Amino acid sequence: MKIIVDAMGGDNAPFEIVKGAVMAAKELDTHIILTGRVEEILRCIEKLGLKDLPGGVEIANATEVIEMDEEPVMAYRKKKDSSMTVGLNMLRDGQGDAMVSAGSTGALLSGATLVVKRIPGVKRAALAPILPNAAGGVMLIDCGANVECTPQYLLQFAYMGACYTEFVRGVKSPRIGLLNNGTEKTKGTQLQIDTYELLEEARTAGKLNFIGNVEAKDVMHGVCDVVVCDGYSGNVLLKATEGAASFVMKEIKKTLTSSFKTKMAALLVRKEVYDLKERMSADKIGGTALLGISKPVIKAHGSSNAAAIKSAIRQAIDAANSNMAEILQKNIAE
Amino acid sequence: MKIIVDAMGGDNAPFEIVKGAVMAAKELDTHIILTGRVEEILRCIEKLGLKDLPGGVEIANATEVIEMDEEPVMAYRKKKDSSMTVGLNMLRDGQGDAMVSAGSTGALLSGATLVVKRIPGVKRAALAPILPNAAGGVMLIDCGANVECTPQYLLQFAYMGACYTEFVRGVKSPRIGLLNNGTEKTKGTQLQIDTYELLEEARTAGKLNFIGNVEAKDVMHGVCDVVVCDGYSGNVLLKATEGAASFVMKEIKKTLTSSFKTKMAALLVRKEVYDLKERMSADKIGGTALLGISKPVIKAHGSSNAAAIKSAIRQAIDAANSNMAEILQKNIAE
């Protein structure tokens, strides 16, 4: 198994990326190809206290870097020798089994679609992060790749999400919910009303375990395994959840440091609250899968540290092991 | 000042509603008209340890009740003698200055629109709850009344939200944000792109303090005072926030009761954590204003207790005192 890792993408690149990749090579027994500027990557290796590239890690030189604030499609087209583009070309050419990048989401999505290509029959690739929740994580698909959707796109998202959740995450017969502003089937805009019908047909045909509409308030409480939504409202769902969770954690911290008495309490629960914060962190569950692309591409969070990169690499390995693209292609063709 | 209160609407009706109304009459120095079944209301008064209706509280008899699971428009049309309909008729006829109900949101919205009518020029009434946040509360408009919107509706929502926030909540030159999946003005669906232009024009003309697009993750952190959105995504934003906050609070509780050590800590911070939970509770900030209706109508949360009802009554008083409908009508006409 060979995983291509974009060493230059993300807020903490290249050091945390290189560190995470080295950890993964050692602990996950996988081969890593780091794409990026050789000298910079070697400096990171040195900073890690290593004399040379460790076993299982190699470098593919790439002289350019796509910055987070560049216009995605233009950046991808202009910078032919960027760490991301070089990685995607290698993935297309079979020099690696999956790719991980913490760089620009838009550029990665455009690049993956244009270079690695979509699975035949898939209309749109989707961003599918996994949100930590009461039931061990729920996939949201789509979360921003496609702000305007059709019922057909959403139906495909449901199949892609179900397939990933079953074959990569190991959840048998995953429960698929349609994000809506109420549970009745007449709820939502025309998009949700029409999509409901398609999903209901798929359920009747025994192809999807569609459980109906789900409300945003129930997503964290584990009501389903995959939430199907257009990219615009999926983005609102994801970010509102992140914002609210971080706000409450911040308030908890303030509360615990507000007086001598609460500071005493804080000393007693420091570890437990830290653990909770870690569990709430999306990074720990892994990166965002770009579903619908013919080979596994995982977008790690922009602020990923080494542990998050290692976790995204593990996810890439699982995705590559699952042969998901083939299963999905068969599914879509039917 | 006379506030009409639907005594029969909500999960805890009629007792908590009557209790909250009695508290409000006493503490807020206002006159209350309770609509509902006289005998049931009087039984609540008795249960409160009172011999008779206290000063400032009267009853308007209504024999029917609209249930939460009834189809809103049908329920409103069929039950001519419901506590909600009787109240709305009295509001229209000037027998009260504002109305509060914890009953079915849909029925209240239909009823208010059909009986009390919209402010001339207002295309759609909107549900505008206030979410507790770092800056003392942010209004979301719309949150479910209109799932399909046009840029013109959203522009009016911006004016209505600004007007309420300035004249009822007392925030000078409130900051208006457009909910979007990124801050760049090219973000979002066609609806957001077109609305951005209208809001930008209003800003240039000095009519609105439009601060641009806002992301869902920043709403709780106080980035603006009013978030403009269509009812579908507003509903997702509101409920995702509620769901995430309640999930984290539940996890905190679990953490604090997981061992002897953490239970000791819990004893020390019990009051503080309870206070935080209260602050996070939307009820404390008040009910949801139905903006665009020609007289103030406040929807209290379905699960409101007496304190939440009192708080919604206070909000109704503030709204009635503000002459918001007139100001808004002038604004819209311009």
Mean pLDDT of chain A: 92
Which pair of chains has the greatest number of interface residues, and how are they split between the two chains?
A: A-B, 56 and 55 residues
The H-and-E topology of chain A, N to C, reads as: EHEHEHHEHEEEHEHEHEHHHEEHH
Q: What's the count of strands of chain A?
A: 12
Q: What coarse outline of chain A follows from CA principal-axis ratios?
A: globular
Low-confidence blocks of residues of chain A = none
| Oligomerization category of the chains in this entry | homodimer
The end-to-end span of chain A amounts to 30 Å
State the strand order across the main sheet of chain A. Answer: 3-2-1-4-12-11-5
Largest sheet of chain A: 7 strands, mixed
What is the structural class of chain A?
A: alpha/beta
State the helix count of chain A: 13
Helix percentage of chain A: 40-55%
Radius of gyration of chain A: 21 Å
Proportion of strand residues of chain A: 5-15%
